[in-house]
């Protein structure tokens, strides 16, 4: 393992934290109950008068590094218009629980409790990949609190066989080898599926640094989260529509984790107020590959009062 002062990941993390702070966010921790504690980035309490004038927005990360690594471009772009809250889901970063619950439904309940504890009555939510599962459940279970929903690159409608197809595309035997890479080779495979551009020249030492710094923490619990998913257990999509909710689906046209046809089906399943936006030449992380277009699409949707 590289020492801190030689670690590109550790040094870049300093930059990302400064970007969040410059956007008016601060690191905070709330104890939700006697079992669960959640770490999050949220509006700096010093600027409470300014936050009262803006709507609230929750960004929910995917299954990978902690939230700040996945949402930097969106935080910087959206924070002038919204009170942005960026939680680390349970068992990511400093968020933890002694509960035996491991489902994405439990993650959704934790997000809802966090917003209640933070004093936020209504908010919109954006979730990417695994975070899209969580965002869907937040909107389904607390429709009176959620205003608009953005589901990005998230196969909420996945079936039991979809993981098997994904593993065949990845040429791996277990889903944790892809979602929780333990070696540079496994991380290279994940990057190859998640990004549309070929990145075969990443130095091995940098891949190892990523694995050690971003994927090694709480591996046992994260494997339990993968096994605890309630979505994707059946041969048909196991989800209820959100008929009265404005929903935006954003997808990369070259997504190899959740292929584009899943987005088309999901649009029909979620209800008449759902629309789909496809970003060309991106894969599973369009918010990273084309943040300008992603951000403009999302902002237009969230700010449209018509």
TrEMBL record:
Residues annotated as domain AB hydrolase-1: 55-291
Descriptive protein name: Pimeloyl-[acyl-carrier protein] methyl ester esterase-like
Organism: Prunus mume
